[in-house]
User: What shape does this take?
Amino acid sequence: FPVTIGGRTGLRFYRLAVTYNAVVMAILIFAGPTILRDLIFTNSQGFLWHLALPGSWILIHFIPLLALQARRMRDLGLPGYRVLVPGAGIKMFWQKSTPGDNQYGPEPKD
Assistant: This one.
């Protein structure tokens, strides 16, 4: 993902990025025990190793996803800091973009 916070992100790109991250997280959560089977059954702290794969994915992608959500909020004509409001992501996933240019930049081409 581009990590810039300025500008806007369209609905199609946002849905694609969120869906991709959800699929990867599901694979890491459910395939983690299979991938790390030897560590889980031979080490008493195996459960912590099971959380290592999804946890590292979250740590690596947290800032880029936050930037993506801020750009999506701006695409809706709202300030980017509203990402921090619980439940704001539901609106971003379904609402169409503000048509034309707004105060945050030109309309995204997606």
Q: What stands out?
A: The first helix runs from residue 11 to 35.
